[in-house]
Amino acid sequence: MAVITYRQALHDTLREEMLRDEDVFLIGEEIGVFEGSYKITAGLLKEFGEKRVRDTPIAEEGFVGAAVGAAMLGLRPVVELMTINFSLIALDQIVNHAAKIYGMFGGQTSVPMVLRTPGGGGQQLGATHSQNIELYYAFVPGLKVVAPSTPADAKALLLASIRDNDPVLFLENLALYNTKGEVPDVVEPAEIGKAKVSKPGTDITIIGYSRMAMVAQQVAEQLQADEGINAEVVDLRSLRPLDRETVVESVRKTGCAVIAEDDWLTYGIGAEIAASISDGAFDYLDAPVRRVAAAEVPLPYAKPLERAALPSAESLTTAVHQTLEAVGRRR
Amino acid sequence: MAQTATRTKPATRGTTKPRRGSVRRGGRFAGESPELLQDYFYEMTLIRRFEERAAQGYTQAKIGGYCHLNLGEEATVVGLMRALRKTDLLFTNYREHGYAIAKGIEPGRVMAELYGRTTGTSKGWGGSMHMFDVEAGLLGGYGIVGGQIPLATGAALAIDYRGGDQVVMCQMGDGTTNIGAFHEALNIAALWNLPVVFVVINNKLGMGTTVDKSSAESELYKRASAYRMHGERVDGNDVLAVRDAASRLVEQARETGRPALLEAVSERLKGHSVVDPAKYRSEESVEQAKQADPVANFRAELIEAGILDEDAAVEIERKAQAEADAAVAFADDSPHPDPSTLFDYTYATPVANDSRRLPADPVF
Ligand SMILES: Cc1ncc(C[n+]2csc(CCOP(=O)(O)OP(=O)(O)O)c2C)c(N)n1
To answer: Within 13 Å of residue A32, how many CA atoms lie on the same side as its CB?
Structure first.
């Protein structure tokens, strides 16, 4: 068992999968000579050559579409989209093509590709470079959307995504790349579509994904240590398919829930989770479900404004306190 | 119209060499096999009859959705498909019924797809715009204008990656050359030396918009030079000219891995789709299209050259009509998909918690 960064886990997995399977290749902007904007692909061009590590022109629609076409013929492209913000340029190829080809041709060909892309704010990058728009993809049947929060999950889910025969949007987060965690020497591919209870507990359920799952974990550990509050944390890990069962089972046990998400509140992923809780655990609820989400503004550049707009450990802690007070369970 | 089509002289015969039993007299059929010429005539006529039956099926409400026909483009369709090997791959837009047939798919399966039946090319999941058949090498008809171009480039990438000798052909309309995907995909194909031939069918109309109102450079083959790619224009009403030009570019792509752009200038006989009365068209434009009718003209030429007599032509037409009718009968007799198969094609790799809810089902 080694302690490595999220970045390292991604890098190692790409390398191992390329060694394992000749059909796996990488394609994207600045992933080769420049070694990736976030250095996930460092060293891979040198090791595997231009055929398997393809630098593309700045043409998101063109190269994402080319990856879809290559996948239709059985290759396993792993696309790096510099950030999720630029995926909008490739939206047609992702939503109208990658997601539809298996269905609209009656199952005759599938699209075994992975779209790796970081999202998230907090780096003072301004409105067009700080978005959490994974929801746009999680809305679409035919796509799979995964969002690991730990290095071990990053590895297990990337393995699963590369070996999967469907298009998978693999959501990373700028704030996660340098986080560390234990990764077993041998990692099995994760089961896509399954959430994980990353900390068992009885007092309240906190649900998050990607960066906010990590924040939820930290908050829960802090609450346990400081106040003896025993929160259960559910890390969704997969946004489509969505594991409602694990969420509902947890809320049936704890009777209350706070959802932590980096995206905007209205129509956000938290809204879907809250609806699922209403569907599956209405009779068990002791308080309304709360959502901690980003302020609904184009993310500003100025540091104090950006900080105020994004959910944090503090805002999540506040929401947990308020919910526990409402159910009279705060010690 | 800013320009008229120039007829490419069939000087270069591409892969088709004069052989025994070929037309001996001079003229444009010199060196051609009469059987092959009759074969082209049969296939063009079959597509014509098929499309007429499709239009009929639409008015009878047996076919739904959109239905874009190849009427007037049969020479282009047949000429292009004769330049491809069976193993070569084709990506098309939504106007693909004729291509599906000429690429080797049973007309019955094409009609069954229009009828939304399980025996259709996409088991009823695609309809008019989304036909597909791996064995025939049809890698799909696509309904988003230009959406197929990056896909075709990617398929060529896969061929190149594996060192295969297939060529990809990517068909599109004139209006399609102005969408970003066209530029991005041609640029990438040229940068990476991918074996793909992009074919623009310039019928001078995209729905109601003429090519000179949508393209700043309306001689579309010239776009190729922006990608250091070979570009060429051919008379799309001449099946032999199309076949020869396409064969040359396809074989060149096979040998060198270089992409190319072919513009086939053609005419649309009817509206954009079966429901479009094409009121925006001038009488001259409609008259010009009629004059250019590739099926009628090819028939007349074959008779004039003594390759067909009137009886033989009628016999071929009768056969084509019978095959189109049989396609309709096959489609009519085929089963509708069962609603219990609704969730069969969302994911190729089964996955936990895949939603299989019908509209009125409770979530829990
Ligand atoms: C991206 C996109 N925009 C608009 C449409 C609607 N549309 C369908 S066909 C068409 C005209 C295309 O013309 P052209 O490329 O010349 O092909 P043709 O129909 O003549 O074969 C339009 C605008 C579409 N399907 N996709």
So the answer is: 18
Q: Does B112 touch chain A (CB under 8 A)?
A: no
Share of chain B above pLDDT 70, in %: 94
Q: What is the dihedral of CA A249, A254, A256, A257, to 10 degrees?
A: -60
Return d(Cα B360, Cα A325) in angstroms, integer.
37
Q: Are B1 and B204 in contact (CB under 8 A)?
A: yes
Q: Do A244 and B364 touch (CB under 8 A)?
A: yes
CATH of domain A2-183: 3.40.50.970
DSSP strands (E only) in chain A: 2-5, 24-28, 53-55, 76-80, 114-119, 144-146, 168-173, 180-183, 196-199, 204-208, 231-235, 238-240, 257-264, 290-294
Q: Do B364 and A280 touch (CB under 8 A)?
A: yes
Q: What is the pLDDT of residues B76-100, one digit of tens each?
A: 999 999 999 999 999 999 999 999 9
The number of distinct structural domains making up chain B is 1
What is the pTM (predicted TM-score) of this model?
A: 0.95
- CA–CA dist B297, B309 (Å, integer): 14
Of A65, A243, A279, the CB nearest to B185: A65
Residue B55 Cα, ligand 1 centroid: separation in angstroms? 19
**What's the burial of B45, exposed, middle or buried (CB within 10 Å: 0-12/13-18/19+)?**
buried
The residue range of the domain holding B38 is 34-335
Show me where the domains of chain A are located: 2-183, 196-327
B144–A70 CB contact, under 8 Å: no
* Fold observed for domain A196-327: Rossmann fold (3.40.50)
Q: Which of B97, B145, B285 to mutate to test the pocket of ligand 1 (most atoms within 8 A of CB)?
A: B145
B145 CA distance to ligand 1 centroid (A)?
5
Domain membership flag for residue B108: yes
Q: Is the CB of B144 under 6 A from ligand 1?
A: yes
B51 vs A330, residue with greater confidence: B51
Q: B39: distance to nearest CA of chain A, Å?
A: 30
- Which ipTM was obtained for this model? 0.95
| CATH number of residue B123's parent domain | 3.40.50.970
